[in-house]
Amino acid sequence: MILHDKISAQLPEWRERVTKLLEEHGDKVVGEVTISQIYGGMRAVRALVTDISFVDPNEGIRFRGHTLPVVLERLPKPDGAEMPYVGGLYYLLMVGDFPTKEQALEVEAEWAKNSHVPDHVFKVLRDMPKDTHPMALFSQAILTLQNDSKFAKRYAEGMSKMDLWEPALDDAMTLTSKLGVIAAFIYQLKYRAKAEPSYDPNLDFGANFAKMMGVDDKEYADLIRLYFILHSDHESGNVSAHTMHLVGSSLSDIFFAFSAAMNGLAGPLHGLANQNCLAFVMGIKDKFNGVPTKEQLTEYANETLDSGRVIPGYGHAVLRVPDPRYTAQFKFGKEHFPNDELFMIVQMMDEIIPAVLKEQGKAKNPWPNVDAVSGSLQYHYGITEFDFYTVLFGVGRALGVTANYVWARALGQPLERPKSLTTKMLEDIAAG
Ligand code: HAX
């Protein structure tokens, strides 16, 4: 398999680099931790390492060192498509180089080959209570694939720690190949015809997903390619990525680790935020019976802030510029449906909210983030069920976190086990 060969060829050099760093500079101090940080969710503590992606406060996400506009420009695209192959992005995350079109297609072909979802997965989902949240179904479906883990089998048979990444990569391909089918099945089961979707080997991952969702529109295939690429990775400290890393560090296989990651993504402070953003935009539409005037929107935003609520979709813990993941989606909407009512409100918010937040003076970053627009775009193509949006995020997030999982095994990253202190100990430290 192409990803296996490419990673294998780089491994000796990577292992030497890490070993040298540890042997020669293992005691070098990288930073300090304050009591505020310990109580404050470890915000900004520099304690993780990943080479897959990095969030630059002034530029946003970089995948393997490349900014988002460069990634979207340089990744190969299907003929006639606007957005790149998702398989090409997976190659970039896993291997570190831009693929040729043939190489992206090799990943796509590997996905098609492994896309069959065993019947028991659908059966388990059908047997779950009808009102089960789509993320609970998604997490459950991932666990039902665990019995097939090559990593778990090979580990039980006994294998060298140095080789663990190989069955981890097999599992990563198995998992990512099936996620689109599983997500589309959950959508069909909960909201549509309850049909079992099937993967067409003649279509790429994005076009397949659009077809399986029942959205017969070339534009939606482009949007979903963009969506999966944008949501793939955001370095390792966010809840889903960190959960994946932590669970994986116990040498749980990728199915256990990714299911856990998805349980974290399901939280309102993480993947569920995009639902709140769309609800906010729709609330504006309902209140003003359509698109408000600029004055009305400014007043509404100020009222929201005065009542102690936040404006969803604006601000970021790390970024200090408009999120390039937002900018890419905003551009898509502006090109394809500038006169869609919800999107017109999104555009007006884009003009007005940063100034309102700046005037209030609290938010360190008044600019829009990824969630400010993503729901409105899905809504335009008829994916109107808010609860499902986090599943879409999950399919995209799998690309980044599984690449991290494979590399964590390849570089022999150990069990994660930070030290805890008691409040009394912190008080003693404070007292000097
Ligand atoms: N509306 C109103 N107030 C805001 C704000 C916003 N959009 N963004 C920040 N602030 C406020 C904070 O609530 C905070 O107020 P207090 O001092 O009273 O607590 C103050 O400004 C300073 O906050 P900050 O340091 O700028 O931001 P944080 O790192 O604490 O929080 C958040 C970052 C994204 C959580 C925050 O900007 C926010 O709540 N935004 C709205 C919700 C949202 O868009 N969430 C999705 C984030 C995208 C993401 O990462 N998804 O996975």
UniProtKB/TrEMBL annotation:
Q: In which pathway does it act?
A: Carbohydrate metabolism; tricarboxylic acid cycle
- What keywords are annotated for this sequence in UniProt? Acyltransferase, Transferase
The lineage's top-level taxon is: Bacteria
**GO biological process assignments:** carbohydrate metabolic process; tricarboxylic acid cycle
- In the UniProt record, does the keyword Transferase occur? yes
Q: What is its EC number?
A: 2.3.3.16
Q: What is this protein called?
A: citrate synthase (unknown stereospecificity)
Principal EC category: transferase
User: What Gene Ontology molecular function terms does this protein carry?
Assistant: citrate synthase activity
Family listed: Belongs to the citrate synthase family.
Instruction: Give the organism, scientific name.
Output: Candidatus Desulfolinea nitratireducens
- Acyltransferase keyword on record: yes
